[in-house]
Automatic annotation (TrEMBL):
Region Disordered: start-end pairs: 429-464
Keywords assigned by UniProt, alphabetized: FAD, Flavoprotein, Oxidoreductase
Lineage: Bacteria, Bacillati, Actinomycetota, Actinomycetes, Kitasatosporales
Composition bias, Polar residues: 441-451
InterPro entries named in the record: FAD-oxidoreductase/Apoptosis (IPR050446), FAD/NAD-bd_sf (IPR036188), FAD/NAD-binding_dom (IPR023753), FAD/NAD-linked_Rdtase_dimer_sf (IPR016156), Reductase_C (IPR028202)
Residues of the Reductase C-terminal domain: 344-415
Cofactor requirement: FAD
Limits of the FAD/NAD(P)-binding domain: 15-321
The protein, known as: NAD(P)/FAD-dependent oxidoreductase
Top-level division of the source organism's lineage: Bacteria
Length: 464
């Protein structure tokens, strides 16, 4: 049978399983049906809900402007799928082409798409995490619980970690009029994503809005009272803070544990896949029947030295899911590459923050519009003499301009006349990005090297 005939049979009567009832999973399913796939489609999700939107959870939901249950993603079309919700995938048998679920059911596939995303990194000490008043924010359930607690008017909220999620939670708390202490072990908020130079501006935003921001500090212990309710946090500088609520915003963990022993190249950094979203096995050989998309995937990008990128971006999840769905049901010559340029946004303390490209790859920085002393500016990141990224504080109108320069490898420092003559940093400076190996909150874009496998192989020379 020809490859074309195989594809037609797959399109007509194949079995496609999507593990991860997420944004990426839903958009992939819709794309499959749009492309004429008429076979069986099974959607597996560990939460009891159909796919919902996560960005509003740390913004509108915490502010009471939307209910957690009203964040369901809009449907672009019907997908005629079997939904297996509230039960997690537990293992993968590649030989039998089956996914085993936590309830011991098995689901067979001809093509498998993995969109399991990430989960919130928990607090380090389970007995402290179990205290009443300790929260994470990742799921719809998390947001609903935290909203109810904030609405009750706690005397002080502690946010552990000043990445984007932690900063957005702190912003929502201040908007509600709550007292907030933010503890960040790095030198500034957002340092892992945008570097210390831009992070100093984020620090000023927080302090100007009344946040008790403590950088270069960590929480050593959470203390409860005799009823098991949170009452105090102890810090590494020897001080203590009385708090009713603690939100641990320590970054994300990619949901790959269920793939252990499957032979898929999956680990803490995600699932390695090629530019067409096909997963690699542990030997670096690309599979033809297993695909990955969204936060859990990492794939090479030619603009960034072909390093594998792991992206926690809404737009990337949509774009990658559509590419994966297309490639799953087409012949090899018709496959498309996933070459999404990372784009991220956040709203905190009255400022709209966006970035494009990979700031964490930058080795130099210039401020091309506005000034760091103001709320509005554009920071351009360079890498080995070319523009690699840009960050925008209330200057989103420049995003398209810099996207185009990143895509064509424009020289750095920028060689065009500056539009805003108030610019203060015309000469390149160090962006003050932290060592990526240091334990701090995770960036939203992670460079994970060139190897598709996370195995450590020991080579033993043969003896003559």
């Amino acid at each position: 049978m020809s490859a074309e005939s195989d594809v037609e049979v797959l399109r007509r009567e194949g079995r496609i399983v999507v593990v991860g009832a997420s944004l990426a999973g839903l958009r992939a399913a819709e794309t499959l049906r749009d492309m004429g796939f008429t076979g069986s489609l099974t959607m597996i999700g560990d939460e009891p809900y159909e796919p919902y939107d996560r960005p509003p959870l740390s913004k509108q939901v915490l502010l009471g402007r939307a209910r957690a249950e009203d964040t369901a993603l809009p449907r672009r079309r019907g997908i005629d799928a079997e939904w297996r919700l509230g039960v997690a995938a537990e293992s993968l048998d590649r030989d039998a082409k089956q996914v085993r679920l936590a309830n011991d059911d098995t689901v067979a596939y001809d093509r498998l798409l993995i969109t399991t995303g990430t989960r919130a990194r928990p607090w380090f000490y389970p007995e402290q995490e179990a205290l009443g008043g300790v929260f994470v924010l990742r799921t719809r359930h998390d947001a609903a619980r935290l909203y109810r607690k904030l609405a009750a008017g706690p005397s002080r909220v502690l946010v552990i970690g000043a990445g984007f999620t932690g900063s957005e939670v702190a912003s929502a708390c201040r908007e509600r009029g709550l007292e907030v202490t933010v503890v960040e072990r790095g030198p500034t908020p957002l340092v892992g994503a945008l570097g210390g130079v831009v992070g100093e501006v984020a620090a000023r935003l927080q302090r100007d809005r009344g946040v008790d921001l403590r950088c270069g500090t960590s929480v050593t212990a959470l203390e409860g009272d005799e009823t098991g309710r949170l009452r105090r946090a102890h810090l590494s500088d020897g001080s203590a803070v009385d708090v009713d609520v603690a939100v641990t915003a320590l970054g994300a963990i990619r949901n790959t544990e269920w793939l252990a022993g499957s032979g898929v190249a999956a680990g803490p950094r995600g699932i390695a896949c090629d530019a067409g979203c096909r997963a690699f096995d542990v030997n670096g050989i690309v599979t033809d029947d297993i695909y990955a998309a969204g936060d859990v995937a990492r794939s090479p990008h030619p603009l960034f030295d072909y390093q594998f990128l792991a992206l926690e971006h809404w737009g990337n999840a949509v774009e990658q899911a559509e590419i994966a769905a297309h490639n799953m049901i087409c012949a090899a010559p018709d496959r498309s590459p996933h070459l999404w340029l990372p784009t991220f946004w956040s709203v905190q303390f009255g400022v709209n923050i966006k970035s494009v490209g990979v700031p964490t790859m930058g080795d130099q920085l210039v401020i091309s519009q506005g000034t760091l002393a103001e709320k509005g500016f554009v920071a351009v990141y360079g890498y080995r003499g070319r523009v690699i990224a840009a960050a925008f504080f209330d200057r989103a109108m420049w995003l398209g301009f810099y996207r185009e320069r990143i895509e064509r490898g424009a020289p750095f420092p920028p060689d065009y006349p500056l539009v805003d003559r108030r610019t203060e940093a015309l000469q390149p400076i160090d962006p003050a990005l932290p060592d990526p190996h240091l334990p701090t909150h995770q960036p939203t874009v992670t460079l994970t090297g060139h190897s598709p496998s996370e195995r450590r192989v020991e080579f033993v020379p043969s003896r003559a």
